[in-house]
Amino acid sequence: MPESYRPHLRKDDDKDRTASQSVTTNTSVGHAKVQDILDQKKGQVVTIRPQQTLHEAVEILRDNRIGALPVADATGALLGILSERDIVRKLADTPGHTLPHKVEEVMTRNVETTTVDEPLVTVLRRMTDGRFRHMPVVDGDALTGIITIGDVVHFRLNQLELEALQIKQLIVG
């Protein structure tokens, strides 16, 4: 019996087709690390010495429009961190006599730090659980940067926008 005629169908070409996009490639969440934020910040870390006064610290915070200062020694080793919250607590304890105090008297000594290789999701969890907004980035004893909870949230929002765009492109084609 003769075979009936069948027209050429698109699926006949499937073996020759390639795809540059797939659901997996367009929706996979990258494993962002602290280094990804530092790459975007492009700035030197503003620090303060432990012997400086709170008056100097307040001026540095104001002039640089930042909320915390890593406290480092002359070699750059991290000794602590001084945040706006630390200063406010001291203001409440010693009203009118706060600014002459030394940074080392007020700073937080037990500092949570991170490294450039730590995943951002872990850093965000640590910051949220510990209820702090600034985390110094260290390499051994050397201070290499500082990230804020705002940096992490901003980075993640940008990632989510990109993921949404990629999904939309996948749907539209």
In short:
This is CBS domain-containing protein. With 173 residues, this protein is an alpha+beta fold. The protein contains seven helices and four strands.
Characterise this structure.
The protein is α+β, with helices and mostly antiparallel strands and 173 residues long. The chain has a domain at 44-148: CBS-domain (Roll). Helix content is 42%, strand content 14%. It has 7 helices and 4 strands, in the order αααββαααββα. The strands form 2 sheets. A two-stranded antiparallel ribbon has the order 1-2. It has a two-stranded antiparallel sheet with strand order 3-4. Strand 3 and strand 4 form a beta hairpin. 21% of the residues are buried. Residues 19-28 have a biased composition (Polar residues). Residues 40-99, 107-162 form the CBS domain. It comes from Algicella marina. InterPro entries: CBS_dom, CBS_dom_sf, CBSX3_CBS_dom, Diverse_CBS-Domain.
Compile the SSE list and pairings.
Elements: H1 23-27, H2 34-41, H3 54-64, E1 68-72, E2 78-83, H4 84-93, H5 103-106, H6 120-130, E3 134-139, E4 142-148, H7 149-172
Antiparallel strand pairs: 1-2, 3-4
Describe the structure using short key phrases.
173 residues; alpha+beta; 7 helices; 42% helix; 14% strand; CBS domain-containing protein; CBS domain; Diverse_CBS-Domain; CBS_dom
The DSSP helix count reads: 7
CATH superfamily of the domain at 44-148: CBS-domain
Structural class given helices, strands, pairing? alpha+beta
Tell me, briefly, the overall form. elongated
* Beta-strand proportion: 5-15%
CATH topology of the domain at 44-148: CBS-domain
CATH structural class of the domain at 44-148: Alpha Beta
Write down the secondary-structure element order: HHHEEHHHEEH
Instruction: Please estimate the helix content.
Output: 40-55%
Overall strand count: 4
Region (Disordered): 1-28
Biased composition (Polar residues): 19-28
Domain CBS: 40-99, 107-162
InterPro entries: CBS_dom, CBS_dom_sf, CBSX3_CBS_dom, Diverse_CBS-Domain
